[in-house]
């Protein structure tokens, strides 16, 4: 059982607080327990007309394996409490993973732990974050950034993507997909997928390509090329390739390959099928191909992955 702490700050955004608390909720199907805390116990004035009453202060971080800092109102007006920065640095030094949702990135930035690394936040605040913390490489276009022990995400909805990403890494595809079904959320959106900002791909194309991605996920075992994807999206292959990259952060075939690897991960966790059969099922052809792509994406082999994440382990 891994322990999760969710730190509620003054002006905390309700969705940002609720997402990690609900995704990692303490229940039989989840190998986590959750503590919601503040800088100190007691009442906390939140955003959007809501307030919170928490039983724990920052001592909750002392035993946490994973710490979330949800977004809060007006991060540009004053820095977060110094006590929080100290507690986050101490948790990180002890080996905890730190994750910020939306403007929670400002609190994480105050620790110095993001210096020299990539990070993101809500697009409305990305320029302010970059100006205030110039040593951070702020990327306003992505949904989330995973730098290993420190992670950041954009707006509230991308907090779900970040949480599911962490679940996939720590507990495997089956647990992450179970949580996604419980939340009625998309089981996989790449961290490289673009935030919805005014300069992004027009919404009609985004919707059309989302449908094409859903179609591709249902046909991973079939031959899928750019021409077929573009035909489904009803645009030219050249237009499809360019706009798909803008929308997802991947070329079409990179995205398909990763989707096939993820489907292979799920089959490895839930069945005893051999690697050759899995490779054919997900459209990677041969066991050699599957092993090569598995190593490239995950840094491990299918056998090692099954040993770590199979239901019987």
From TrEMBL:
Keywords for this protein: DNA-binding, Transcription, Transcription regulation
Protein name per UniProt: Helix-turn-helix domain-containing protein
Domain of life assignment: Bacteria
Organism encoding this protein: Leucobacter allii
Domain HTH araC/xylS-type: 210-308
Keyword Nucleotide-binding belongs to the record: no
Gene3D superfamilies registered for this protein in UniProt: 3.40.50.880, Homeodomain-like
Xref: PANTHER family: ARAC-FAMILY TRANSCRIPTIONAL REGULATOR, HTH-TYPE TRANSCRIPTIONAL REGULATOR RV1931C
InterPro entries from the UniProt entry: Class_I_gatase-like, DJ-1/PfpI, Homeodomain-like_sf, HTH_AraC, HTH_AraC-typ_CS, INH-QAR
Keyword Transcription regulation: yes
Lineage: Bacteria, Bacillati, Actinomycetota, Actinomycetes, Micrococcales
């Amino acid at each position: 059982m891994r322990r999760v702490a969710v730190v509620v700050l003054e002006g905390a955004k309700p969705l940002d607080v609720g997402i990690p608390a609900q995704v990692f909720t303490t229940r039989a199907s989840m190998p986590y327990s959750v503590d919601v805390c503040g800088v100190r116990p007691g009442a906390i004035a939140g955003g959007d007309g809501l307030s919170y009453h928490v039983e724990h202060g920052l001592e909750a971080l002392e035993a946490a394996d994973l710490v979330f800092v949800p977004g809060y109102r007006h991060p540009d007006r004053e820095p977060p409490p110094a006590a929080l920065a100290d507690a986050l640095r101490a948790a990180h030094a002890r080996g905890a993973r730190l994750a910020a949702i939306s403007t929670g990135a400002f609190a994480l930035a105050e620790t110095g732990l993001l210096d020299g690394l990539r990070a993101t936040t809500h697009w409305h605040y990305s320029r302010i974050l970059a100006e205030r913390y110039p040593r951070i490489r702020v990327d306003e276009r992505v949904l989330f950034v995973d730098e290993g022990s420190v992670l950041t995400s954009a707006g509230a909805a991308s907090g779900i993507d970040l949480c599911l990403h962490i679940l996939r890494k720590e507990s495997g595809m089956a647990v992450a997909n179970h949580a996604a079904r419980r939340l009625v959320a998309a089981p996989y959106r790449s961290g490289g997928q673009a935030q919805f900002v005014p300069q992004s791909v027009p919404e009609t194309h985004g919707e059309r390509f989302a449908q094409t991605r859903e179609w591709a996920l249902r046909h991973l075992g079939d031959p899928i090329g750019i021409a077929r994807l573009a035909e489904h999206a009803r645009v030219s292959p050249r237009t499809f390739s360019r706009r798909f990259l803008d929308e997802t952060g991947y070329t079409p075939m990179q995205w398909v390959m990763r989707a096939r690897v993820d489907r292979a991960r799920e089959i490895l966790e839930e069945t005893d099928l051999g690697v050759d059969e899995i490779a054919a099922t997900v459209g990677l052809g041969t066991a050699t191909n599957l092993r090569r792509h598995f190593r490239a994406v995950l840094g491990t082999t299918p056998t090692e992955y099954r040993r770590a994440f199979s239901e019987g382990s």
